[in-house]
Specification:
Layout: H1 2-20, H2 31-37, E1 42-47, H3 49-52, H4 57-63, E2 66-69, H5 75-78, H6 88-99, E3 103-111, H7 117-120, H8 125-142, E4 149-154, H9 167-172, H10 176-187, E5 192-197, H11 205-219, E6 226-229, E7 232-234, H12 241-249, E8 254-265, H13 270-288, E9 293-298, H14 308-311, E10 315-316, H15 329-339, H16 350-358
Parallel strand pairs: 1-2, 1-9, 2-3, 3-4, 4-5, 5-6, 6-8, 7-8, 8-9
Antiparallel strand pairs: 8-10
This protein binds (3S,4R)-3-hydroxy-2-oxopiperidin-4-yl beta-D-xylopyranoside.
InterPro entries: GH (IPR017853), GH10 (IPR044846), GH10_AS (IPR031158), GH10_dom (IPR001000)
GO molecular function, one term: endo-1,4-beta-xylanase activity
Enzyme class: hydrolase
């Protein structure tokens, strides 16, 4: 253990040194290693059986340290029929991560989407509680001690801050949330447990509802560790992200940017891509500026393969690599910001002192990720 840690420290010092000299000589450094040099745990992305061997795998392995499975860990894939569990694909993702020195954010346990019809049809309280517990015990238990985090509940709110009308809320009311967290904690005491949500990017009833819910959960001693802000953003509506991340951090929990992309209203023009560059830098800086922010995960590599293409066809070009897998301006902006140590933020100048300040473990107390 000690040897591993000091080896990691050595590698981190080396990265720090590379970054410190980067002003004079351009040095290739991964987004992940640069995030770590800025005191964070990781820069992440999505992975699944389709991209493990696809044309993006070089970028995925080279740039990122934390991975969220895009499909194969969702309820409809793990337990499509009651009591019949399918772990072939999720195991393949876990094994890919371990073979490549990467970590996993499990995604996701209780979500209204991608659940099988048999779950949606449940009307009995006891039955649904048992089903939730069983699903969480099996899924979380299978990867116990092997994942960094789990998105325990996902997207529980409507835009107006009321609870979404999912089977979980209809049958159990708000109680499904403490139940899910308590079950997950028991199934893997080492995983960081997240509540994950979108449109927490600007002031309004939705983020207010999230903050109120977290306070209620904390008052009931519910084992919740962190808030994930998906940050599926629309270009032109990004400026408030840093301020809202600070509000989420005011709960005392960890926070993370969990599914970052910034979609552009079609037609995509050079001017709009230019604006997107600045927006990517702003979000990155927003995380650097908040000590509680553990890291940023993208939701995809190439614009060609983004979920936005099908889900939101009026928009395009949401990611940091174009359709030909070339780095876009957005990549350059994030890379540049991380090299400078988030200039203008409280992390500025951190690049030289980070290794000393944090020792073997970061503020977030978890094992460090490989470079
Ligand atoms: C999306 C995937 O990217 C799609 O391919 C799939 O069809 C649906 O799910 N919020 C989430 C993610 O938490 O799980 C979603 O991922 C995107 C929105």
């Amino acid at each position: 253990m000690t040897r591993t840690l000091s080896f990691i420290n050595l590698r981190r010092s080396f990265t720090t040194l590379l970054l410190a000299t980067a002003g004079y000589h351009y040095v290739e450094a991964s987004l992940n290693s640069m995030m770590q040099a800025n005191g964070k745990l990781y820069f992440g992305n999505i992975i699944d059986t389709n991209t493990m061997q696809g044309n993006e795998d070089g970028v995925l392995k080279g740039e990122f340290g934390m991975f969220t499975p895009e499909y194969s860990w969702k309820w409809n894939r793990i337990q499509p029929e009651k009591g019949k569990f399918h772990f072939n694909d999720s195991d393949a993702v876990m094994e890919w991560a371990e073979a490549n020195g990467k970590q996993i954010r499990g995604h996701t346990l209780v979500w209204h989407q991608n659940i099988p019809d048999w779950v949606d049809a449940i009307t009995d309280k006891e039955d649904l509680m048992k089903v939730i517990k069983d699903h969480i015990n099996k899924a979380v238990g299978r990867y116990k001690g092997r994942v960094y985090a789990w998105d325990v509940v996902n997207e529980v709110f409507n835009e107006d801050g009321t609870f979404r009308d999912s089977v979980f809320y209809r049958v159990l009311g708000e109680d499904f949330i403490p139940l899910a967290f308590r079950t997950a904690r028991e199934a893997d005491p080492n995983a960081k447990l997240y509540i994950n949500e979108y449109n927490l990017d600007y002031a309004g009833p939705k983020i207010d509802a999230m903050l109120n819910l977290v306070h209620r959960l904390q008052a009931q001693n519910v084992p919740i560790d962190a808030i994930g802000s998906q940050t599926h953003l629309t270009s032109g509506r990004v400026n408030e992200v840093p301020a809202q991340l600070k509000r989420l951090a005011s709960t005392g929990l960890d926070i993370a940017v969990t599914e970052l992309d910034i979609r552009i209203k079609r037609p995509v023009t050079p001017a709009k891509l230019q604006q997107q560059k600045g927006e990517y830098a702003l979000v990155t800086k927003g995380c650097l500026e908040v000590p509680a922010c553990v890291g940023i995960s993208m939701w995809g590599v190439s614009d060609q393969n983004s979920w936005v293409k099908e889900a939101l066809p009026a928009f395009g070009a949401p990611l940091m690599w174009d359709g030909n897998l070339r780095r876009k301006g957005a990549y350059g902006a994030v890379d540049g910001l991380l090299r400078k140590g988030g200039e203008g933020s409280e992390m500025a100048g951190a690049k030289v002192s980070v290794t000393r300040r944090h020792g073997g473990r970061g503020r977030h107390g978890k094992r460090r990720l490989s470079l």
